[in-house]
């Protein structure tokens, strides 16, 4: 099949543009663009202008350009983008903070009505309250089993009703009712599906992790490694402190149960021979803060009379000149 010269030139220019962006940018967001209009897309491009570039195109063309770039540069890591190019998707090349770029993209979501045949991305709940519709419109509510009553000449919904569940198709009755109520339940915009960062591909949920989350996950992993190492008696950096403590406990148990001893066990053996030493140590520890508090009170009390005397002298001197 011979390509039209114009189409061939367009493909060549697209290849050059995409390959140039792959050379320049190390961070890429793969985004879904379902139900995103041209005006909305233009606003997104303006909002990201400066450190990010949005590139759309046919999946076949994007895959072709990525393969060409990978062959030219021997950068096989970039091929991990190819399986992600499924459906109506685009690429956002950025040099900014990935989390901030995703938050900027989310600002451009717009409300949309529930059209017949659309797959609901969220649950749609009709809230209770006055609808402002006249009683002749009750047939819509009856078809959908929505409890209503007539209040001051208008239809009022008694209780909240889940009209459409996530993943279901929007029917004609649901769409008509939501339109009459002025409810635009859905919002559409670019949705980040995956993140490519210098050869690594990961889920966008990773961007929500804080430093505390990372520390917690690291601590959990360290605890798992230590537990596993202790269970199989295999020394690792994570398990070594526990192994030394356990070994000390075992040696201490032998020393306590026999005449064998070593310097670190002498104090424990002394306490076991004379339990009164525990009471002496506890009494001394409790007396220390008590004595310090008493000394503080004595110091404060010793200072108070000086203040009183100074005040009384001043009063006396002032009285002489009345």
From TrEMBL:
Keywords: Ribonucleoprotein, Ribosomal protein. It comes from the Eukaryota. It holds the Pfam family RL10P_insert. The keyword Phosphoprotein does not apply. Residues 306-316 have a biased composition (Acidic residues). GO terms for biological process: cytoplasmic translation; ribosomal large subunit assembly. Residues 290-322 are annotated as: Disordered. The keyword Transcription regulation does not apply. InterPro entries: Ribosomal_protein_uL10 (IPR050323), Ribosomal_uL10 (IPR001790), Ribosomal_uL10-like_insert (IPR040637), Ribosomal_uL10-like_insert_sf (IPR043164), Ribosomal_uL10-like_sf (IPR043141), uL10_eukaryotes (IPR030670). GO terms for molecular function: large ribosomal subunit rRNA binding; structural constituent of ribosome. Residues 114-183 form the Large ribosomal subunit protein uL10-like insertion domain. GO terms for cellular component: cytosolic large ribosomal subunit. P0 forms a pentameric complex by interaction with dimers of P1 and P2. Belongs to the universal ribosomal protein uL10 family. Ribosomal protein P0 is the functional equivalent of E.coli protein L10. This is 60S acidic ribosomal protein P0.
């Amino acid at each position: 099949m011979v390509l039209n010269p114009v189409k061939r030139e367009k493909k060549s220019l697209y290849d050059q543009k995409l390959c140039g962006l792959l050379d320049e940018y190390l961070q890429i967001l793969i985004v879904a663009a379902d139900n995103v209009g041209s005006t909305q897309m233009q606003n997104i491009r303006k909002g990201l202008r400066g450190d990010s570039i949005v590139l759309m195109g046919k999946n076949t063309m994007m895959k072709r350009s990525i393969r060409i770039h990978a062959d030219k540069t021997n950068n096989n890591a970039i091929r991990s983008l190819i399986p992600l190019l499924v459906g109506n998707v685009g690429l956002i090349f950025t040099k900014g903070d990935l989390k901030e770029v995703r938050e900027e993209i989310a600002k451009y979501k717009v409300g949309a009505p529930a059209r017949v045949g659309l797959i609901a991305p969220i649950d749609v709940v009709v809230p209770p309250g006055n609808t402002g519709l006249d009683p002749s419109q009750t047939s819509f509510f009856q078809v959908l089993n929505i409890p209503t009553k007539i209040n001051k000449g208008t239809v009022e919904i008694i209780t909240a009703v889940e009209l459409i569940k996530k993943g279901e198709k929007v029917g004609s009755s649901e769409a008509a009712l939501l339109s009459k109520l002025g409810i635009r339940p859905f919002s559409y915009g670019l949705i980040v599906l995956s993140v490519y960062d210098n050869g690594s591909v990961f889920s966008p949920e990773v961007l929500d992790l804080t430093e505390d989350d990372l520390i917690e996950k690291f601590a959990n992993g360290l605890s798992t490694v230590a537990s596993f190492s202790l269970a199989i008696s295999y020394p690792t950096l994570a398990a070594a402190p526990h192994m030394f403590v356990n070994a000390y406990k075992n040696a201490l148990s032998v020393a306590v149960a026999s005449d064998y001893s070593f310097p670190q066990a002498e104090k424990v053996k002394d306490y076991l021979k004379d339990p009164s030493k525990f009471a002496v140590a506890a009494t001394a520890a409790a007396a220390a803060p008590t004595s310090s508090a008493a000394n503080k009170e004595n110091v404060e009390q010793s200072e108070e009379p000086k203040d009183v005397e100074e005040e009384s002298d001043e009063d006396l001197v002032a009285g002489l000149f009345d």
